[in-house]
Design goal:
alpha/beta, disordered N terminus, six-stranded parallel beta sheet, Rossmann fold, 3D-(3,5/4)-trihydroxycyclohexane-1,2-dione hydrolase activity, flavin adenine dinucleotide binding, EC 3.7.1.22, DHS-like_NAD/FAD-binding_dom, single chain, globular, Thiamin_PyroP_enz_cen_dom, 656 residues
């Protein structure tokens, strides 16, 4: 399928002939037809700032079963030219692809997914949780049991012995920002606008679940015709409140050593990266980036101190620990960012966030607002105020030193007989672009999730512009990588999407390689094979545990032992191109072939599961058993208790 078919022309009509002609001011449609037609009618202003509009929904991923094929399946077929449908191979994976599509569009375009009831529906729950944690929009449309209860229980129905109104889809309630079960076709008239508001509101944004009982999907209703008129969506992001701005200014203007922590909101807010850069430059404030915020400021900007937190740079973490005021811009301040609340305990925190729940974390003084609007308002009021010259000078010096460290770690000459590790792979991948590092930083999109690779990428990947770094680390979900890469490619077909994935995550979820080939959405997948779950193996030992059940060599095995897996051959069996390389030099050459290829290309390299980049980092709280027969565990517990005591001491000092 060509890219034009995948990314249908913005001028395409958002409506199609109904099953029955308009009669007065109503249109008779099934609930499924009404749902699909409504989604197809939603438009969004073009990203290039022109007068054009584009479909808000880029399409629907679907795996059909008895609970959705006859109802929503027929409706999707009818409107397939206005709202394309893509077949996937795993329900969780297709939802990851849809979520990644929205992330790559900075939440301004999105997708829907539909499944049957039973395992098809519950397979979406993990993806819903991922979208919830990352504040990303996705519309989930699982089939549901019959409202009539005539066939009771229907195939795949979960029965609750105490509540006849519960189905498996109730599992979506804690992982949805809005949940509704459509028990009558007319209910769509209220449910769909509510769903759309959640999906397009910066403060509410996250997964929406509309459970669709099978019989209701097929029921007809006379809908108002104007319900299906094309609409250009307004994205809701609040302006700052004057009192909160003044309180923030009071704290900021007495600071001498302020720092900005840029989170995902610094990317999702339209115009926020430019506002962030202007604000940092005008006031001499260094910037540290979370996993979600990386790329908001170019990697080589003098005030970009790099990644912050547990997987952070030595520069950003030193500055954060010395800062007297931290502007947390669009970040949910999870423990990897705050070093389990030990990294900036000495600082006043100002939480700039569209979502009050997130803005109040770390006992912050909140400015509840869109990131760009808040930065613009603060900048106007600050006028020519600046951080101390000594602080800005120290920040730029540390940032430069960190960039030198990154260059060294990613360009270390190979040693004979020594397996490469993640930093070596990252360097080779970025050098392999035709224009070298500069082109890779500007044009490539790196996709990853979970394990050691996100830590190494956070420190070492050089992102030259917003969107160049696409790592899911809010939910840290193994299996997101390849499916997420597909979603990013559908969103940005002109960019090279490079998925970096460990062998453990690859084994968990790889079927969307076949989908990428089927759709002509080419990915480059780099598999780092360390023969097990290397990240958790190291954490296990750091907590005093013995190597156990993580690496193949430390697992219970049958008489044939652990399998020797040929990932390249497996990828070829799914329709991709694939090869195994022996070293970093071969990897760089293979990457050039992959970039020139016409389809998804998988490159596999054996790596060292024990080595990581020692530079940078911060303490992360992982509870160690108080009682153990193992001396190593007791020693780890003693070290853990000391760190907890240090955090309590820091809290005591901060609270006066």
């Amino acid at each position: 399928m060509n890219q034009r078919a995948l990314h249908h022309d913005a001028a395409t009509s958002a409506t199609a002939p109904s099953a029955q002609a308009d009669q007065g001011t109503t249109i008779r449609l099934t609930a499924a037809q009404a749902l699909v037609r409504y989604l197809a009618a939603q438009r969004v202003a073009a990203e290039d700032g022109s007068a054009r509009t584009e479909p808000l929904f880029g399409g629907v991923f679907a795996i059909f079963g008895h609970g959705n094929v006859a109802g929503i399946g027929e409706a999707l077929y009818q409107y397939r030219h206005e709202l394309p449908t893509y077949r996937a191979h795993n329900e969780q994976a297709m939802a990851h692809s849809a979520i990644a599509y929205a992330k790559a569009h900075f939440r301004r375009r999105m997708m829907a997914v539909t499944t049957s009831i039973g395992p098809g529906a519950t397979n979406l729950v993990t993806a819903a949780a991922l979208a919830h944690v990352n504040r990303l929009p996705v519309l989930l449309l699982p089939g549901d049991v019959f409202v009539s209860r005539a066939p009771d229980p229907v195939l795949q129905q979960i029965e609750d012995f105490h509540d006849g109104g519960i189905s498996a889809n109730d599992a979506f309630k804690p992982v949805s920002r809005y949940f509704d079960r459509i028990v009558h076709p007319a209910q769509l008239l209220t449910a769909l606008p509510r769903a759309l508001r959640v999906l397009t509101d910066a403060a509410l944004c996250g997964p929406v679940t509309l459970a669709l009982p099978q019989d209701v999907q097929a029921m007809a209703y006379n809908y108002p015709a104007d319900f299906f008129e094309p609409r250009t969506v307004t994205f809701h992001a609040g302006a700052p409140v004057e009192e909160e701005l003044e309180a923030a200014l009071t704290r900021l203007t007495i600071a001498r050593q302020p720092m900005i922590v840029a989170g995902g909101g610094a990317l999702y807010s339209r115009g926020a990266p430019d506002a962030l850069r202007a604000f940092a430059e005008r006031h001499g404030i260094p910037v540290g980036e979370t996993q979600a915020g990386k790329g908001a400021l170019p990697w080589d900007h003098p005030l970009n101190a790099g990644a912050i937190g547990v997987t952070g740079s030595s520069a950003a973490n030193a500055l954060a620990h010395e800062a007297d005021c931290v502007l947390a811009v669009g970040t949910r301040l999870q423990d990897f960012t705050t070093g389990s609340n030990t990294l900036f305990t000495q600082a006043d925190v100002i939480g700039i966030n569209a979502n009050a729940f997130d803005g109040l974390k770390a006992r912050a003084h909140i400015v509840q607002a869109d990131a760009r609007r808040a930065l613009d308002a603060l900048g106007t009021r600050l006028a020519d105020w600046k951080a101390s010259a000594e602080w800005t000078s120290r920040a730029t010096s540390l940032a430069n030193a960190w960039r030198d460290t990154v260059a060294t770690r990613t360009n270390t000459p190979a040693q004979a007989g020594v397996l490469p590790y993640d930093a070596d792979v990252i360097g080779a991948v970025q050098r392999s672009a035709e224009g070298g590092l500069a082109q890779s930083a500007a044009d490539d999109i790196v996709v990853c999730a979970a394990g050691t690779l996100p830590a190494e990428l956070h420190k070492l990947w050089r992102a030259g512009r917003p969107g160049a770094y696409h790592v899911e680390y809010g939910y840290s979900c193994m299996g997101y990588e390849i499916a997420g890469g597909l979603g990013a490619k559908l969103a940005r077909p002109e960019r090279e999407v490079i998925v970096t994935v460990g062998d453990g995550s690859y084994l968990m979820m790889n079927s969307e390689i076949a989908t990428s080939v089927m759709l002509g959405a080419k990915l480059i997948v780099v598999v780092l094979d360390n023969r097990g779950y290397g990240c958790i193996n190291r954490l296990q030992q750091a907590c005093g545990g013995a190597p156990f059940n993580n690496m193949f060599d430390d697992c219970t095995q049958g008489p044939l032992g652990a399998p020797a897996i040929d990932f390249a051959a497996h990828a070829r069996s799914l329709g991709a191109l694939g090869e195994h390389v022996a070293n970093v030099a071969e990897l760089e050459a293979a990457m050039k072939r992959a970039r020139a290829a016409d389809r998804t290309y998988v490159v596999v390299i054996d790596t060292d599961g024990a080595r990581t980049t020692d530079d940078g980092g911060w303490w992360w709280e992982v509870a160690v058993p108080e009682v153990s027969t193992r001396e190593a565990v007791r020693a780890a517990r003693e070290a853990y208790d000391k760190e907890v005591a240090r955090r309590i001491e820091g809290d005591t000092k901060r609270n006066g």
